[in-house]
Fold each of these.
Amino acid sequence: MTDEQVLITQAQRGDPEAFRELVERSKINVYRLAYDLTGNHHDAEDLSQEVFVKAYRGLPNFRGNAKWSTWLYRITTNACIDHRRSQSRTTMEYKDDLGDDETTSEHNHRHSVLNPDRSVEAGMIQENIERALSRLAPQERSVFVLRHYHDLPLKEIAETMKIAEGTVKSYLFRALQRLQRELAFYKKDLGLEEQ
Amino acid sequence: MMTCEQSRELFIEALYDELPIDVKREFDQHLVSCAKCATDFQNMKTTLKIMDQRSRTEPDQAYWNSYWDRLSSKIAEERDPSKKFTWRPARLPAWAYGIAAMFLIAMGIYLGRTYFGQHELSQPEIEHPIATNPVPLIEDSTTTQALVYLERSKNLLIGFANRSEDESTSRDLSHQQEVSRRLIQQASMLKTALNKPDQQLMRQLILDLEVILLQLANIEVKRGIPAVELVKKGIDQKSILLKINLEEMRAMARRPSASSDKKIRTTL
């Protein structure tokens, strides 16, 4: 039995210190995932806490078939996807139709040309990367973030999101295509353009 | 020999080095022989390099140190529904909150003048030794301290939220950050002291405020407008100013009329 499993068992028996230790060990990763999925600190703060409240509530049903981290990641992605859906009811920011991407990319490029000095600023790059991420559909973003920023193998992402591995690949492929279109104009700015 | 379609199905694994060695060899051979697939694969690689430029704004240690306190209070609410305070405002534009706040304040003033004001005017001759007592009767000192704390925080946040974009770049925030730090110190004391059932709303509000104040105290000036805007957004999203107003009105309603004359002193 691993140290983590011991803590989970103790927490399931109602030991608050054991649960606290589990939270302390995973709070940064959960917060970071929530931040990567929402793009802002306030939502990440609220959602990461919501994740641990849900974990506390669901602790008696946690059977240990999955890893603790996988289970938390699942709760986090679900919470963030729900959050995103509730937001998109009022503001439809992303479009499912890949055919519309030219418009966004053209807009960004025009913006960059109008503000040549700002386009090279790190802050602007961050902003455009965040904007590109926000254009992804919730599932695409989740898959991309888990693979690229949290280094989860495809198999583990499939387990986390309870979808087939082929579906993970499909989401990831579409996410990359969309990001490529959104950020096409940056290749030159960052010196990454093909020769 | 691998076809273009087969190679594209392997793009994702290839980008993240998840291909078995023999399959990778075959994949690489295909790229050498197919310029189109090679270009498309390279473009995806380049996009990932751009995404590598992304950095997160990480909260500081103070945020993590208070993380468990905030979480455990939420879990306590979870365990004891009677302590549960759920603030879920409908998604309304900011001006609607402003109007609602003004309406509530106006209503409070009207009710105060109608009921308490007349009562005082109709009994001017009655000597009320308690009324001259500067210490409120019903409120305990913790509640009074909490009200002073809320008033100070409100003034600080109003000043901060009303900064123009020009001010955000030209003026440094050192004074406001210093005040935030002092308020954060007071918050930890107040959180412990506010332990009665009827003080839980106020305690929750102070917890919410603490998060905002922590962020304000830790804004790095070099990060400029985005960091400032982030905190302003937090103030707006949590409707923190409206909550303070409501809490103050609630406290005022509980006070005896005599103590309503006592103005909360605000010193920043």
Amino acid sequence: MSTPYAGVGIVLVALVTLGLGAYGWRFSRTTSDFFVASRSVRPALNACAIGGEYLSAASFLGAAGLILAYGADMLWYPVGWTAGYVVLLVLVAAPLRRSGAYTLPDFAESRLESLVARRTSSLFVVAIGWIYLLPQFQGAGLALGVVVDADDRLGGLVVSTVVLVNVLLGGMRSITLVQAFQYWLKLTALLVPVMFLLAAWAGDGATSPATVTSGGMTGSEWSMPTGEGTQGLYTTYSLIAATFLGTMGLPHVVVRFYTNPDGRAARRTTVAVLALLGLFYVLPPVYAALGRLYAPDLVASGDSDSVVLELPGRMVDGVAGELLSALTAAGAFAAFLSTSSGLTIAVAGVLSQDLLSRGTMGRRLGGVRSFQLGAVVAVAVPLVASVGTDGVAVAQAVGLAFAFAASTFCPLIVLGIWWRRLTDAGAVAGMLVGGLLAGAAIVDSLLDVEHHGWTATLLAQPAAWTVPAAFVTMVVVSVLTPRRVPAHVATTMVRLHTPESLRLDRGRAVRRLVG
Amino acid sequence: MTAPPRRVRVTSPRTSAARTRRVAPTSEIDSRTRLGEVYVSSLVRAQLRLAVGVLVLVAGLVTGLPLAFWLFPALREVMVLGMPLPWVLLAFAVYPFLILCGWGYVRRAEYNERVFVAMVAPGTAPPEGEEPDR
């Protein structure tokens, strides 16, 4: 269903992205602008930016595709992606902002007073960023292939080029505006077509999607919220664990919290994000339900990820249908662009702070230059990987990134904020155990090794056992190394938890580049 | 009988006695005394209790659903507004619930902070407003 309008829509999104970025370029002069927009972003704008950044290809295309193909147990993806922000809000938002660190490695170093903890976190930030960027580039290729009959590799190249130009020139300041715009674009791109689709559906007699047999599933099978038997129940709970706990460990989400002016604003921003996500995630299931009636062939051919792109053209005739398809294609492209930008900034920040700015070369490069070099590396590696590999399902790869983040950074952040006795030895041991276990499960699923029964179930959705393993390791090793409790933990606790309005001695956060 | 002697008020300037030193709680916190620690950990504990409360509510209701649908398969067949119950709950009703939880948490967390400020720095910022309802 290639249409010229879709091509125009995608070009427009790319141009507006660059245009808004250019508006921000004029202000980006200092390193602080590049990293955190000089911390001057208001909660409303920041919430839109977080929403824009967070809603990736997996949310825009993948969720509807999974629900169409597998039914109601896949509704847990959007629910978990939203509830992750509730967990982030109550356990992390304000203390993380008050920690005064820019990135997860900054947090690890200033809380644990240990360079080893910092380097370990840097490693995991880059790993999660690359696991997450890979499906974005592959999804972009897929979408471009569907709507304008382009080569599958072109989409990834287009997305990475636009992202790189923007990040190189404007950093966080220009990205904030771009992301906020892209949230509303994505919402519009699902909301406007869905009204036409529902009207067409009502005109056709409004058959309930839960009463028909389509795509090889009966209506009642399709409305079941858990899979078959105890293994299905385990998979559901493991998915819940990964999404609820993984959100706080995503590097591109966490870096956004430092752009809030203070801890109170960080909390309010998070509630606004919850509302924006709740508004958005109502829509993909509607596409999935309509897809059961109007596009059941996509399930059989394995193209269910493209249901959002295909439906408008199938249900609405003529130019109107083509325009609506173009709108959803533009929204999908916005999803690739915004998430990739956020990830690129997060990975580039860590690369430049911890790898590139060390040694004589880094000193010669300076803050902004080494950030830009970091951005090039951050984009190049997953782009090459996306061209070189056949590809994993978008939502599956993103789900694994969540499981990985939940098994490494979730215990570090939660225990770091709420438990005084956490030690650097415990934190590093816990992150390594969680990272290695989850990493092994990811490599296993990428290699497509055949497993049966419970082994397959446990490896396909690892969070339910890797997250507890990481927590237990962190606690046990910390208790066994009581002498390694950081010397300034009392000062750190004051900094993390007391409101900024009080004049207190909060010590100094580690800030590698600025200051 | 003579009249009782007039009462004489006996006072002492107590110039030699040590003055009670009044230490502001904020400087107790700054000098990391035991008392300062107690102030800070009271705040941390209040916020943690609140966070755990919200998490139990969210996790209890949201993670209770798969179990409920697994234990009582008949629930899957219940129709509400022409849609199966799992769909109504998971695709639509869950979002307003999560937003309400978040909003209630922010109100209580900010209240906890105002109480803490009033305790350690009395007079600078009185706790505004009523204690929010649970």
